[in-house]
Structures are given as structure tokens and as C-alpha cells.
Amino acid sequence: GAVVSQHPSWVICKSGTSVKIECRSLDFQATTMFWYRQFPKQSLMLMATSNEGSKATYEQGVEKDKFLINHASLTLSTLTVTSAHPEDSSFYICSPTSGANLGRSPLHFGNGTRLTVT
Amino acid sequence: DAKTTQPPSMDCAEGRAANLPCNHSTISGNEYVYWYRQIHSQGPQYIIHGLKNNETNEMASLIITEDRKSSTLILPHATLRDTAVYYCTYGGSQGNLIFGKGTKLSVKP
């Protein structure tokens, strides 16, 4: 199956600082990247969708100026949580896709980043 | 958007088959149903997917009803390592997957 590398796996930061999460597709070109977050004991919720070279599309209720997404290359996308606050503490998961057979082939996911803001 | 209904939790004895049901009555005719599982603090792991026909792979079997409104994931011989949250899911408007609350499967010795 597709190899997805997400880094870091966990991070603790102080309130007001920014954190960058990287997601790499190691054996395919990711034209589209889905970013999810998961609060404790809840399911994965889509935050945003980005296409390589384009601006990301954010889901309702997700602040685009707070969660900066860069998808400048076909193998790397980053999510930066700016001015993080304790309520941003969550599990962030990326899901890159080549876009081929979208809907007919499984999506693959990174192993997630556990963000704790103190 | 997609909506699935699964029992919140199930227990299964080690070595026995685990049958996990899912209702997806609003799935459209050309949408695949996917099953994933998530072990604590990890990303979702793909298990199996199908459209109309039953499917089997090295991990599990998938039984889809003829009307496609529900499906059952079968783990034929559950092990302790199969303890996880299992999600059935299908498509969002952008090609993403929409996840419900899933079923927490506990495999007990």
C-alpha cells in the first residue's frame, strides 16, 4: 500500500507559539491532501482539502488564518497551527492522494500528530 | 454528506469471528463502502472496500447486502491485536472519506 510519512508524531508547545506538521507521500505523487483532526473520544473530522499549487479549501468552522496549509510540492504538504491555544490540542492526521480513481480506491493516512498546547 | 450507523462497541472472544455491522442507507449507487480501523493514537488503517460484490482479502471479508444499504465486516479469527475502533465510511463531496463514531471492538482472551 501507499507509504505516508507524517512528522512529528507528537509535539508539546506553549500557548501562543506555532507548530508545523509535515506530511510526505513517499511512493506516489499527492495531487490532493486531506487534513483531518480528531479530538479525544471523537471521530476524524475533515479540516481542509488542498490541491498541489492551489489554495486550500477549508471546512466550515475551521479558520484558514489559523491553520495554514502549504502544498507546494507533489510529495510534501504542511499544516501550521499558528498561535496555538489549548483548545487546538488534538490529533492531526493527513491523507494524501494521487487523485487517480478517487472514490474507487482506498485513501491512505499518516500516523497522526498528537498536539498538546500548554 | 455520508452518514453511517454502527454499534458503539462490541466484544469478541479471541479466535472467534468478529462480525461488525454498518448501516449506510444513503449510499449512492456508484459509491464504494470502505472499512478502516484505528488503533489508539495511530492513523486509520485500510482494511477492505467494496461496491456490490462481497470481497475478501488477507485481513477480512466484506459482505454487502443486495440493496447496498448495509454491510458487515468479518474478521474470521480475531486476535488481541484486532482490538481497535472500526469505521465504515464512504465518500465526501471532495473525494475525502467521512467518518462516523465507529465500533470499538474489544477482543478478549
Give a summary of the structure in a few sentences:
The complex is a heterodimer of chains A (118) and B (109). Chain A has strands spanning 4-7, 10-13, 19-25, 32-38, 45-51, 57-58, 67-70, 76-81, 90-97, 113-117. By secondary structure, chain A is mainly beta.
Task: Describe this entry's structure for a reader.
The complex is a heterodimer of chains A (118) and B (109). Chain A is mainly β and 118 residues long. Helix content of chain A is 0%, strand content 46%. Chain A has strands at 4-7, 10-13, 19-25, 32-38, 45-51, 57-58, 67-70, 76-81, 90-97, 113-117. By secondary structure, chain B is an all-beta fold. In chain B, 0% of the residues lie in helices and 47% in strands. In chain B, the strands form two sheets. In chain B, strands 1, 3, 4, 8, 9 and 10 form a six-stranded mixed beta sheet that branches. In chain B, strands 2-7-6-5 form a four-stranded antiparallel beta sheet, with no helix packed on it. In chain B, a hairpin with a 4-residue loop joins strand 5 and strand 6. Chains A and B meet through strand 4, strand 5 and strand 9 of A and strand 4 and strand 9 of B.
